[in-house]
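Response regulatory domain-containing protein, Sandaracinus amylolyticus. Tokens?
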Amino acid sequence: MATMEAAATRVVVLDDEERTVQVLASWLGNLGFVVHGFTSVENAIEFVSREGADVVLTASHVANMGGAQIAASMRDARRASPPAFVAMTPQGESARGVEPGFDGTVRKPCALDTLLTEISRLAPAHG
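Tokens:
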């Protein structure tokens, strides 16, 4: 399992499935990450604009907005210190590598080890 300084890492979880947000927030919060979960794209963008984040874990599509558009909106809102973005893609989607507009990709359902590896890889550059 990947290790890192969790307490200093701010993670935003965005998914339109409330259960996914709850589980990921619980896992990461129990490991000491500062986690904020959202099912609303608008609320997540507003939060990142106001508070910032080190890493954003988001579904590849939430509501009517694609992941690349979500990432672009959050980057625009935090130009001085944009977060890193990890796309959570459904298991059935073809493996295409990193989604456009993202710094990393994990498959849903997400394994904790995989999430920690991506967060530890991305957070030092964005924390």
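The longest strand covers residues 84-90.
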